Amino acid sequence: MVREDKWFTLKDGRKALLRNPLDEDIEGVLEYLRVSAAETDFILRYPEECEKYTYEGEKKLFDEWKESDCDFTLVCLVDGKVAGNCQLRMNNRMKTRHRASIGIALMKEYWNLGIGTQMFEEMIKVAKTKPEITQLELEFIEGNSRARALYEKMGFRIIATHPNFIKLKNGKLLNEYLMVKEL
Asked: How far apart are alpha carbons 47 and 180 in whole angstroms?
């Protein structure tokens, strides 16, 4: 699914661009995946798990996203660098097509600049163009208070807990919380 580019101003005054990922963004996306995985325990991968991601694999994904009626993906560029991405995944099964899920992540140097809010606003706008979608869903990991605050600001509420969802290298277990927003 393709959408118009959107420029906006960050809280620090810089300009940022939200757009569908282009082939020229692949190397930046691969870097973003590696870096973001090392910066927080709230992403569901460790940096060494990013070794499996390749240019060819990302290109295939980008091409699939462009053609998909069920997936919508944006990257955020700041000063030409990939800062993060977000995705809206819609369901095409008859019984669950009223639901869509959102995923989002940013590199730490771009936290608290307003990018997450902009990404969510775009995801919600896209979801609202699909009359069959009446519910948005997302998950976050226990302790991720910044993400929770953003999600609540955007109208999501916690509806369930998945206990011991992830196990960190140090053995610590963390819960996952499911949130929904009715449209």
From this structure: 29
Q: Mean pLDDT score of the chain, rounded to an integer? A: 95
Which class is domain 6-134? alpha beta
Residues contacting residue 153 through CB under 8 Å, at least 6 positions apart: 117
Q: How many CB atoms lie within 10 A of CB 83?
A: 24
In this prediction, residue 79 carries a pLDDT of 96
Q: Which residue has the tokens 């999600």?
A: 151
Assign 90 to helix, strand or coil.
strand
Q: Which helix (H) or strand (E) covers residue 136, if one does? A: strand 135-141
**Does residue 144 carry a pLDDT above 80?**
yes
User: Can you give the pLDDT at residue 69?
Assistant: 84
**Domain boundaries defined on the chain:** 6-134
Length of the chain measured in residues: 183
Chain centroid, CA 83 distance in Å? 11
Q: At 114, phi and psi to the nearest 5?
A: 95, 0
pLDDT at 68: 86
Residue 56, C-beta contacts closer than 8 angstroms, at least 6 positions apart: none
Bridge-based pairing state of the strands 157-167 and 173-182: antiparallel
- Tokens representing 102? 């959102």
Query: Residue 138 corresponds to which tokens in the numbers above?
Result: 């997302």
Which pLDDT score is estimated for 153? Answer: 97
